[in-house]
Amino acid sequence: MKTSYEPVSEAAKNHRQKRNEKLAEVRKEYKKLLGRKIAFLSGIVLLIIFAIAYIITLGPLGITIPQVYETLLARYLPGFFNMDSVFEQVVWNIRFPRIIGGIFAGFGFGICGCVMQAVLKNPLASPFTLGISAGAHFGVAIAAVFGIAVVGGAYLLIVNAFLFAMLCSLFIVSLAALKGATSETLILAGIAVNYLFSSLSQLMAYFANDEQLRLMSLWGMGDLSAFSWSKFGLFVVIFAVCTPILLSKARDLNLMTIGDDSALSLGVNANRVRMITMMVSSVLVATIVCFTGTIGFIGLVAPHMARMLIGTDHRILIPASGILGACLLICADAVAMNIIGPTIIPTGIMTALLGVPFFLYLVLKGKRKEFWQ
Amino acid sequence: MNIKLSVQNLEFAYQSTPVISGMNMEIPKGNLVSILGPNGSGKSTFIKCVDRILNPKKGIISVDGESISSCTRRDLAKMISYVPQSSVRIFPHSVFDMILMGRRPHLGWVSSGEDEERVWDVIALLGLEEIALHSFNELSGGQQQKVLIARALVQETDLMLLDEPTSNLDIWHQLDVMRIVSDLVGEQQITTLMAVHDLNMASRFSDLIILMKKGSIHAAGKPCDVLTSENIAEVYGVKADVHCHDGVPIIIPYQQIHGNGSRKTPFFSQIT
Question: Which of A55, A211, A369, B128 is most buried as measured by Cβ atoms within 10 A of its Cβ?
Answer without folding.
Answer: B128
